From TrEMBL:
<dbReference type="InterPro" id="IPR023346">
    <property type="entry name" value="Lysozyme-like_dom_sf"/>
</dbReference>
<protein>
    <submittedName>
        <fullName>Lytic murein transglycosylase B</fullName>
    </submittedName>
</protein>
<dbReference type="InterPro" id="IPR031304">
    <property type="entry name" value="SLT_2"/>
</dbReference>
<feature type="domain" description="Transglycosylase SLT">
    <location>
        <begin position="37"/>
        <end position="322"/>
    </location>
</feature>
<dbReference type="Pfam" id="PF13406">
    <property type="entry name" value="SLT_2"/>
</dbReference>
<dbReference type="InterPro" id="IPR011757">
    <property type="entry name" value="Lytic_transglycosylase_MltB"/>
</dbReference>
<dbReference type="InterPro" id="IPR043426">
    <property type="entry name" value="MltB-like"/>
</dbReference>
């Protein structure tokens, strides 16, 4: 029992006031802006202990290097500078070796989800160099930094942080405060954000948990499921070169979603360099290549790749890496 010495009434009231201020300040203090509201929402939605949630967030650190990295993404480069990052002889060779090593599993998952397996390999190749570099940032630090200190995209990253805090333990691959990933908070060989883990990740090896860091069946199937759920067309084209004539109409597209039939582009002065169905729904991308503008017809499967990363440069790199890998592997009997 704590014994409080007798005090003059005025002094006694003053001590009580100081104690009350100390208690309320301690209870209401938070490490990060918006933390109290976030903890309240997660506790309300999941029943998780607010003290435990606050302890997790108190241990997270705002990282200036993360804010610096998001301000200079590789997708801000031109195609002639972006392409050499991913279409190197080594990355192609490593992709061929990776496919050959895991071909039986990749082909099975490709057939199961209706997704060409070379694109599963290419995604992993572009994202993490076939699992060699999954990121060294603490995921919690990344999402706290971007969700609570980066106003331009705070809404998106706060949603990712909330989902991370709400995620079941068997979807995490480890304790929240020990997970590592990219500066944007993406995890595993396929670099899934928390909402993508929630919506598209798969326990393909049926061990009762989703492990995007150590289970190749889970990794491959999660990428394939992401594509399938976003509308991948089995056997469909991704991109094809286009040649404009001197009177070609200037075209502005808002994104990679196919908007017109190919024959409409031909009427506007853009010809395919290989035979394609005239009614094929199509979009058009103009990229700054080594020798000037490159024009590309892009299709539904190209659009699906941009659901993984919205940059058309990214989607084109994945497509070209996939073609280079499959050319090195040889004839496939899986889904094309």
């Amino acid at each position: 029992m704590i014994v409080i010495p007798a005090l003059h009434p005025v002094r006694f009231l003053a001590v009580l006031s100081l104690l009350w201020i100390g208690v309320t300040t301690s209870a209401g203090a938070t490490t990060h802006p918006g933390q109290a509201e976030l903890v309240s929402e997660v506790a309300r939605d999941t029943g998780k202990n607010p003290q435990a949630l606050n302890a997790l967030l108190d241990g997270a650190t705002r990282q200036q290097s993360i804010l610096d990295a998001i301000s200079r993404p590789a997708e801000g480069k031109s195609w002639k500078d972006y392409r050499p990052i991913f279409l190197t002889d080594k990355r192609i060779g490593d992709g061929i070796a990776f496919y050959r090593e895991h071909r039986a599993l990749l082909d099975r998952i490709g057939r199961q989800y209706g997704v060409a397996p070379q694109y599963i390999v290419a995604i992993i190749g572009v994202e993490t160099n076939y699992g060699r570099n999954t990121g060294s940032y603490k995921v919690l630090d990344a999402l706290v930094t971007l969700g609570l200190y980066y106003p331009p995209r705070a809404t998106f990253f706060r949603e990712q942080l909330k989902e991370l805090l709400e995620m079941p333990d068997n979807h995490l691959g480890g304790p929240i405060d020990q997970l590592t990933g990219s500066y944007a908070g993406a995890q595993g060989w396929g670099q899934f954000m928390p909402t993508s883990i929630r919506d598209f990740a798969v326990d393909e090896d049926h061990d009762g948990r989703i492990d995007l860091q150590n289970s190749l069946p889970d990794i491959f199937a999660s990428v394939a499921n992401y594509f399938a759920r976003h509308g991948w067309v089995s056997g469909g084209p991704v991109a094809a070169r286009a040649q404009p004539d001197v009177s070609a109409k200037a075209i502005t597209v808002k994104d990679a979603q196919p908007q017109w039939p190919l024959e409409q582009f031909e009427a506007w002065g853009y010809a395919p360099l290989r035979p394609l169905p005239p009614a094929q729904p199509t979009s058009l991308q103009m990229l700054a290549g080594d020798h000037g503008p490159e024009y590309w017809f892009t299709f539904q499967n190209f659009y699906v790749i941009t659901r993984y990363n919205r940059s058309p440069l990214y989607a084109m790199a994945v497509d070209q890496l996939a073609h280079a890998i499959v050319a090195g592997v040889g004839p496939l009997d899986a889904v094309q």
